[in-house]
Design brief:
Layout: E1 2-6, H1 10-20, E2 27-31, H2 35-45, E3 48-49, H3 55-58, E4 64-67, H4 74-83, E5 88-91, H5 98-108, E6 115-118, H6 125-136, E7 142-150, H7 166-182, E8 186-194, H8 199-203, E9 209-216, E10 221-227, E11 235-242, E12 246-249, H9 275-278, H10 280-294, H11 304-323, E13 327-328
Parallel strand pairs: 1-2, 1-4, 2-3, 4-5, 5-6, 7-10
Antiparallel strand pairs: 7-11, 8-9, 8-13, 9-10, 11-12
Helix pairs in contact: 4-5, 5-11, 6-7, 7-11
Domain GFO/IDH/MocA-like oxidoreductase: 127-247
Domain Gfo/Idh/MocA-like oxidoreductase N-terminal: 1-119
Keywords: Oxidoreductase
Length: 334
């Protein structure tokens, strides 16, 4: 299998290294908005590079496409790849907002090629175990979920205005995993936010810390928190509380949380600082799954429709934060 990869920044170069090691990936070709960077990464891996991203479709003769470019290029590359009959993997988001995501869906609806959107938590062993427990009924009925995505440090100032905001960029991972673990849909949200850090968040109309109360379609309650300022470390967790049992994802010795109880030494490990460290194995499994998708052995494990469902929750949260009221997700679906 020959795979083309567009975008060799931090996550793209990681994906390139991962795919290079997959036994079914016989060759690769890399492209980037900066051709010199593409050539540098390609040379380090012993693979090909092309001068322009559009060359992936014209001269590279690829069997599948991986997209890790800047967000504003995702939609057009997904459409071009799917219409060319190529299986496509794309890092989230599909597009910057729900309207553009729906546009992608319309433009690829006649294409037969599968599209896999990158929500890597679906391939993390902890989240997979939580899903299995919920689906098996071992927790009883789930009444409460608590999720968080707490970044150790804020992103660069220039990233924020094009990120879509903290709900679309950050908490959307929690929204997706809540749907995936429980098999339920979010029907209503109430979100608040604060700006106590760098001024560039406020200038972009964004928040640097948020809290959201979500109601699921079976009545379960979920609480999701996010921040760009968790200096103790990168903290991503999920707690699922049921009538018979409860469990936690991310409660390991690298948890960046300090107990002040006497005699308690847990956790004692070195905290994660980056999402690539926290989810290294999940990213590897995710790309192995895409190779299976490209080979026709399985369907897409995270479709454009899945990505849209989580993005709609994020958009409802943004409306709620801005208007200071509960918002039904159905309000933003039309």
């Amino acid at each position: 299998m020959r795979i083309g990869l567009a975008g060799v920044g931090r996550i793209g170069s990681f994906h390139a290294k991962t795919l290079r090691q997959h036994p079914e990936v016989k060759s690769m070709v890399l492209a980037d908005a900066d051709p010199a960077r593409a050539r540098h990464v390609a040379d380090s891996l012993g693979v090909d590079a092309v001068a322009r991203t559009e060359d992936l479709f014209s001269t590279a003769r690829i069997d599948a496409l991986v997209i890790a470019t800047a967000t504003d290029a995702h939609a057009s590359l997904i459409v071009e790849g799917a219409r060319a009959g190529l299986p496509v993997f794309c890092e989230k988001p599909v597009a910057i907002d729900a309207a553009q995501t729906r546009g992608v869906l319309r433009r690829i609806e006649s294409a037969r090629a599968p599209v896999h959107i990158g929500f890597q938590r679906r391939f993390d062993s902890g989240y997979m175990a939580a899903r299995d427990a919920v689906r098996a009924g071992s927790l009883g009925w789930v009444h409460t979920l608590r999720a968080c995505t707490l970044d150790a440090a804020p992103p660069p100032a220039e990233y924020v205005p094009t990120s879509g905001g903290i709900f679309r960029d950050c908490s959307v991972h929690d929204f997706d995993i809540l749907r995936w673990v429980t098999g339920r849909e979010v029907v209503e949200v109430y979100a608040v936010g604060q700006n106590r850090g760098a001024d560039f968040f406020r200038a972009a109309g964004d928040a640097d810390a948020t809290g959201t109360l979500l109601t699921l379609d079976d009545g379960a309650i979920a609480l999701v928190s996010a921040t760009r300022y968790n200096a103790a470390g990168h903290d991503v967790r999920l707690e699922v509380l049921g009538s018979k049992d409860s469990l936690a994802v991310g409660l390991d010795d690298r948890l960046p949380l300090r107990s002040v109880e006497a005699g308690v030494t847990f956790p004692s490990g070195k905290p994660y600082t980056l999402f690539l460290d926290r989810f290294h194995d999940a990213y590897v499994r995710e790309l192995a799954a895409f190779v299976d998708v490209a080979a026709g052995r399985r369907e897409s494990p995270c479709s454009v429709e899945d990505a849209l469902a989580s993005l709609l929750i994020a958009e409802a949260c943004e409306v709620s934060r801005r208007e200071r009221r509960p918002v039904r997700v159905s309000e933003v679906t039309v």
